[in-house]
Amino acid sequence: MLLAVFIFSPVWPDIHESGLHRQTVLLRWPVLVLTWSAATALGGFGSRQLKEFLTPLPYPADHNQLVTKGGYRLVRHPLYGSQLIAAFGWTVFALSLSHLLLLVTGFLFFSFKASKEEQWLTQRHPEYRDYAKRVKTFIPWIY
Asked: Bridge partners of 136?
């Protein structure tokens, strides 16, 4: 749902008729396809590994277990990371400053939510601290 709101938000500035928009089309499409493919894979692996532990709330389910395989082997928050990667791809594709602002806002929102989750996960699973030192937060090999 967040991604749909992001995509259907107005593009600003609207440069669809500009030379820059036409000149970069062959670059923007591959960026969109690559980022959305990566986002789909990361989000898919992440949700597949969580299965019955998945909850919309930041507080872990009472019956949860620490998951460190699949998408969680690459990043600690693959579902958030997948949305950020997809949003980045759309921002580049649309050449939109308004979407860049939404992307930054989304990053701040997911960073706050992830920090809360990590506090609770560390309380419930003391080994989470070591896992967090080894594995990036949202984007494999970067952050």
From this structure: 75
DSSP three-state, residue 132: helix
> Residue 95, by phi and psi: left (phi above 0), alpha (psi -120 to 50) or beta?
left
Whole-model pTM over 0.90: no
Residue pLDDT, tens place only, 85-99? 999 999 999 999 999
Q: How far is CA 46 from CA 18, 30, 80, 86, 142, in A?
A: 39, 24, 10, 15, 18
Q: Domain ranges in the chain?
A: 28-52+67-143
For residue 77, count CB atoms less than 10 angstroms from its CB and return exposed for 0-12, middle for 13-18, buried for 19 or more: buried
Q: Is 58 in a helix, a strand, or coil?
A: coil
